[in-house]
Amino acid sequence: MKQSIKRNSINDILEALGDTPQAEGLHIYISKEDITESPFPYPFRSDSYTIMIILSGRSKIQFNLLDYTIEAHDIVLISPHTVTHVKEIEKSMSLIAISFTMNFAINHTLNRTDITAFEFFASKTALSLRLKKTEIESLIKLTDLLYEKNTIVSPFYGKELLIHSFNLLMFQVAEIYSEKYASNVTKMNRKEELASKFIKLLEENFKKERKVQFYSDTLNLTAAHLSKILKEVSGKTAGELIDAAIITEACILLSNPVLSISQISDELNFSDQSFFGKFFKKHLQLSPSEYRRKT
């Protein structure tokens, strides 16, 4: 059942964006026109790692149930673990996105031990950072170079040029991450740490554990105190986040036509399909079958 969960491949994403594939396992997307509406109105996972650099505009995006506003000069790092949901394009956007598979990264790293430098992709959550103007300019130059080496194959040292271009960009991102993430970690307070632990716990247990008490007991908090902390940090209570996790997973499963609604209900541990349908409609004002037809 888990293998039936739909993930968007690089090619699926390119098709939605109206772009054509480049090399196997690597694609550099540079928006030629401003993006005015979400090409993905439903939550999804990808089979690739993505570095997204926002050049202009603003959007509300949800990563693993947490809301972010991303805008010009932001860099967003997304791993295949991340459930992404573009909620709204508030201001038309232009962006650069470098997407690659783990196989590509492994086969195009100069030294196998160097891949440990890219620890930012080990996280199960997306990481959004604000860049300086000089950092944006540097990343754009390196992306242009990588795009050239990925689309125009030289008969002389073509693979070597691609490998070095890819590594140069990745180490530039790693440097930015190391500098900014270190300072971000020191700023994380106790409430943010608890919220992070709750999200991790939720990802692992939401299909079977829907009571707030389970999560509060595991974190050694009262249910009321846990909900209060989560409301302050994320804007949602524990119960709302639990429901959101179930709905998000249901939407991902419904995007796969191979699965019946009954199978999806069973996967999410609802007592029967009718109860699942009522729960789904309560939150999205659509029945599962109506949602499937709409998307």
Secondary structure elements and pairings:
Blueprint: E1 7-8, H1 10-17, E2 26-30, E3 45-46, E4 49-63, E5 66-71, E6 74-78, E7 84-100, H2 102-107, E8 127-130, H3 133-151, H4 158-187, H5 190-205, H6 212-218, H7 223-234, H8 238-254, H9 261-267, H10 273-284, H11 288-294
Parallel strand pairs: 1-3
Antiparallel strand pairs: 2-7, 4-5, 4-6, 4-7, 6-8
Pfam family, one: HTH_18
Organism: Flavobacterium anhuiense
Protein name: AraC-type DNA-binding protein
- Portion in helices: 40-55%
> What Rg, in angstroms, do the CA atoms define?
20 Å
- Strand-pairing-aware structural class: alpha+beta
Give the full name of the CATH homologous superfamily of the largest domain.
Answer: Regulatory protein AraC
CATH class of the largest domain: Mainly Beta
Proportion of residues in extended strands: 15-25%
| SSE pattern, N- to C-terminal | EHEEEEEEHEHHHHHHHHH
Shape: globular
State the end-to-end CA separation.
21 Å
